[in-house]
Every structure is written in C-alpha cells, then in structure tokens.
Amino acid sequence: MTATVGTSTLESPTVVRKPVRPSRNVVRALTRSRSGTIGFVLVGLIVLVSLLGPLFTPDTLPTDTSSVYLPPSASHWLGTDSSGRDVLIQVINGGRTVIVVGFAAAILSTLIAIVFGSLAAYLGGVVDSVVTAATDIVLTVPQIALLAVLSSLYHLDNSLLLASLIGILSWPTLLRAVRAQVLSLREREYVEAAQLLDLGTARILSVEILPNMASFIVMNFMIGMTNAIYALVGLYFLGLAPLAGHNWGIMLNEAWTRGAIFDSDSVFYILSPVIAISLLQLGLVLMTRSLEELLNPRLRQD
Amino acid sequence: MASEPLLSLESVSQVFTSRRGEIPAVRDVSLDLAAGTVLCLVGESGSGKTTTARIAAGLNRPTGGTVRFAGRDVWGGDRTAFREFRRSVQYVHQDPYASLNPIRTVFATLAGPMRRHRLVANRDEAWQKASELLERVDLTPPENFLTKYPHQLSGGQRQRVAVARALTLGPKLIIADESTSMLDVSIRISLLAMLSRLSTDLGVAFLFITHDLALAKYFGRDGDIAVMYLGRVVEYGPTREVIGTPRHPYTRALLAAIPEPDPELNARKRSAGSLLRSMDTPSLLRLPTGCTFHPRCPSWVEGECDVSVPRLEALDADARHEVACPPVLRQEADAAVPALSEQDGTG
C-alpha cells in the first residue's frame, strides 16, 4: 500500500477541504416544511411557557369561596375554578409535569424498544425468542388496570416514578416495529459489507442500521410522547395519581368531579386544559415533518 | 503458480432447506486461488456461482467441505484465523445502488473501517487515506467525491466507491460478484481495467463471478476459469485453454451462445454441433440423475451419462485443464495415446 498515486505532487498546495458538518443546513431543513415549522413554534411556545411560567406565577393559589366558577374577565382571563382559583395560572403551571413526564416516558420506552428490538432482530436465535416473548407478555398487560393496582399500593406522586411506569408499559408496540425494520435493514448489502469489514455488532447497529430508521424512530418517539401524555392525563383524570399541585390532568379531574361541566360559565375553564393538551399534541405531530426533512439526506440536499 | 493457495475450497457443498425440499445450491466444489491471481467463475443463473462466492467470502458457512485461507480452516473455530480471513477477503456486490449506505457520505463509508481497525490515527489522516483510495479507483479529484452521498453519484461512481471501500483494510482477495453487470458497457470496460490494475499494482487476488464469458475472457485472461452448472464445476483450467479449446459440452454451448457480429460466423458456430437438446435448466429441487447436464447435452451417451455422476479429471497428467465429462475425457485419451485406450477399455 506504500505505492500511493503520485498525482498529489502535481498540485502541491492542495487545499484539503474538510467535510462540512450539516449544522448550517439544520435550520433550513427544519423550516422547509410549513406545517413542521408551525409544530416547532407551537411546541416551543408551550414548553417555554410551561417551564418559565411558574417563575412568574404564585406557587399556591389562594382559595376564594366568593369567586367560584367565574366566567372569563379582566382579572381572571379564563375564569376561576370550584375554589375560586385563577384558571390561566393553573394552565401555565400545569404543563410542566405533563411535558416532563411525557418526554421522560417516551425516552425510556423508545430506548428499551430500540436497544432490545434491534438486538433481537440482528442477533436472532435465543435473544430474539426471549425478547419477542417478553414483548408479547407486556403487550397483553392492560395498562390502566395495572396502574390502578399500582396506585393503590404505591404513592404515585413522583413525576419520574410515573414516567418510568408509563415508559415501562409502553415499549412493546415500538419494539415490534423496530424489530421488523431491523429485520429488513440487516439484509441490505451495505450491512453485509460492514460485516465483511468486521465493524462489530454495536457499530453496525448504531452506525449502519439505526440511522437509516432515524425518522421512523423520531416519529415513533413523538407518538410515544403523545401516548404517554394521554396516559398521564388519564391517570389524573381517573384519580389514580394523587391530586397534588397543578397540572392539566388534575384540572380535568377537578372540573369533572366538582361539577364544573354543569356550569355554563365554566366553558373556558373546562376547555382550557383540553385545548392545551390538544395544542401540545398537535405541535408534536407536526414537528415530525420537519424532523423527517432533517434526518433524510435526500431531502436535506441543497 | 506453485505457491500455496491463498484461498482454497475443498469439496464444499451448500444445501439450503426450503419448504419444498432441499436445494443443493453447490455440490462438491473444489477451487484454489493463489495470491495475486484471478479466478473467474462463470455459469448461468442458478449455477451456484454466487453461493460459491459467498462461501469464499465467509458469508455462508458451507454445509459440507472445508474453506482454507492461507492454509487455515476458517470455520474450524479459530477466531483469530477467522477475523484475519474476514478482513482479508472483501466482496463487491452486484448492485451499486444497494451496496452503499444511503445516509453516509463517501468519506464516512471509507473512514469507518479504517478508524475502527486503527489504520488511521485521526480524521485528517483518514481524509488523506480516503483520498488516496478514491484516486486509486479513478474518482478524481477526491475532494469532489468525499462529501457526496451515494444518491449524488452515478452507478459507475458508486461501484468505484464500493471497490474503494473493499480496499480500506488492504485485502488480499476481492470477490466481485457480477460487479459490472449493472453498468453501461463503456463504464464496464473502464471499471474492469481499473480492477485489473488493482490486481497488478496491489497484488490483490480476484474471484470474479460473471455469467458473461466474454468478460471472463477479458478480465481473467492470465488466470483460471471455472465453469459451473447446477452447483458443480464442469470445467476448470487456465482461461486461455478453457476459452480457446473448450472441452465440456456445456462450456461449448455457453461459448456458442456469445453472439458474433458476423452472421456467417454465427451460423457456423451454430452448426458446430453445440445446439442443446433442451433449453430448460432443470430445477435444483429435481436434479437429473447422473450428469445433471445430460438432458440437454448434444453428445450424451445413454446408459452412462444418465447413470454415473462425472468427476472433474485432468485432460492429461501435466495439464491443469480439468473436465467433468467421461466421454470427452475418453476421446482426449484416444486422440493422445491410441494404444493405451484399448487396455483401459471403457471404464
């Protein structure tokens, strides 16, 4: 291999151009799809308000029995609840738990699904059998019922505990999808070439196979996050998690259990957590479009 | 040519099991490939040439026989021997659109193996090495190609990148499986010329798989050729001899199938008695008895060819030209030493 081609001596001051990292194109790719941009703005705003909002609003709201179920007004933009507390402040304060738990649960379930799904598909044999069997078992567990049982045994007041529970119960669908994708991708000739170059299982999976399903994974992560958010809100709505503090699920629960739905002045109160959840979910779904543009080199191209 | 073979297949077989039964894709194939030489494997589709190539590359574990690389049994359980074999033997696939990872740049594709095996210390060195490799496969100037993604390259360019990738670890043997069949003719010739140059410049041995005898004749002119039919090697020897004086009826038929620009020559070739009795290739699931070629063979001997399985035998003691066809071997022997044939009888 020492006999290298001598053409480099012809043009001695060759400018070795380094590969341009695609960071410059990231913003362009992200803003190419209009619906994707809307999604980013929506999620960005909600996350910003939810994370920073609590800094500017009081931690505990005073109960005021003289101003129960007030319609929207200048002092209470979205009205008040059954204890006379301001709804807008609750909406602002109530996003953080939902977003954090949804994100953490989705990360956990996606990680489990990717790691075990890809290993099962790539290695096959006993690993595949064990993982597939475990997946089928977890898939048959009724989520809400199990959470109901768990909530009677444990105090589910910790966000991370909730996130772990939701995450641990929601990986099977994604795992099956990941496994199917890897089963197909591992037969590609470039994977075979990588095997011949002795790149090692970890590297082949992480460098050759998984990046090819990046947009698929991201999309499923987003779906996982929306599902986790629904699961969390459902837990609060059904009263399976302690109703401490403020979040959109607790707001729905209180509106339901304390009779706000029978009060026509409380339309905005009831709708505000619903709309907040819907906007967040919509934003997440729209965001996937931009992320797809970003992760597909064919679309990223100038 | 007397050196120890780099790669040798010793009566390897590969039987695939399907729902419809066992498929003997490759049976009892023995091939030797010395360092720096070229061996062409020709045959029609279904002849087992790709399976043989995959066995040679270590992609398939043969169900019978032994694969030796530099004298060591690669499936014998010796892990270091296998890794050495794995890195020394590289494969260039047929389809340049499927063999490159679509989301990796040319640089990433080439740098990955070099960095993984610590052949380069850092990114700059990898860049330098990758440039050299691209120059070697005639992709110049390399800077124009290193940052490209596969979809930004043409088929010929992709195939060159695939060859460059195969060269990253300094292989001793490159297996080219119909590597040029999907390219335009003009590009095909320049790619073949480039591969030939690699063989002479770097001393890389080639196992060249093709269905096109003309390509084999060009690329393997100084090497050997093995003609496969339904999983068996039917004729094996130096390319010049096999192409120049084909002995096996199947090889003759293959050569006769190459169209000639001159219609008169075409007609003469047709009438040379190499027309097949049947145009259908038998199914691997229901192979004919005896010589698997006998239902199509224009010169078969009833009672012999449909009964006994022919073995590869040398035409004469000091020739490396082997044929698996007893009638042809008898003819040759008769022609060479008429006196001996009477003693031998018809064995």
UniProtKB/TrEMBL annotation, chain A:
PROSITE patterns xref list: ABC_TM1
SUPFAM superfamilies in UniProt: MetI-like (SSF161098)
Membrane topology, as annotated: Multi-pass membrane protein
Localisation: Cell membrane
Record-annotated ABC transmembrane type-1 domain positions: 99-288
Transmembrane segments: 38-56, 98-123, 130-154, 160-178, 228-248, 268-288
Location, primary (coarse class): membrane
Listed InterPro entries: BP-dependent_transpt_permease (IPR050366), MetI-like (IPR000515), MetI-like_sf (IPR035906), OppC_N (IPR025966)
GO cellular component: plasma membrane
Pfam families per the UniProt record, alphabetical: BPD_transp_1 (PF00528), OppC_N (PF12911)
Record GO terms (molecular function): dipeptide transmembrane transporter activity
Keyword annotations of the record: Cell membrane, Membrane, Transmembrane, Transmembrane helix, Transport
Family that this chain belongs to: Belongs to the binding-protein-dependent transport system permease family.
Protein's recorded name: Peptide ABC transporter permease
Taxonomic source organism: Actinocatenispora rupis
From TrEMBL, chain B:
InterPro entries: AAA+_ATPase, ABC_transp_ATP-bind, ABC_transporter-like_ATP-bd, ABC_transporter-like_CS, Oligopep_ABC_C, P-loop_NTPase
Pfam families on file: ABC_tran (PF00005), oligo_HPY (PF08352)
Annotated ranges, domain ABC transporter: 7-255
Keyword flag ATP-binding: yes
Claim: Transferase is one of the keywords in the record: no
A GO molecular function held by the record: ATP binding
Keywords for the protein's UniProt record, in alphabetical order: ATP-binding, Nucleotide-binding, Transport
Gene3D superfamilies per record: P-loop containing nucleotide triphosphate hydrolases
GO terms of biological process kind: peptide transport; transmembrane transport
Family: Belongs to the ABC transporter superfamily.
NCBIfam families found in the cross-reference section: oligo_HPY
Protein name: Oligopeptide ABC transporter ATP-binding protein
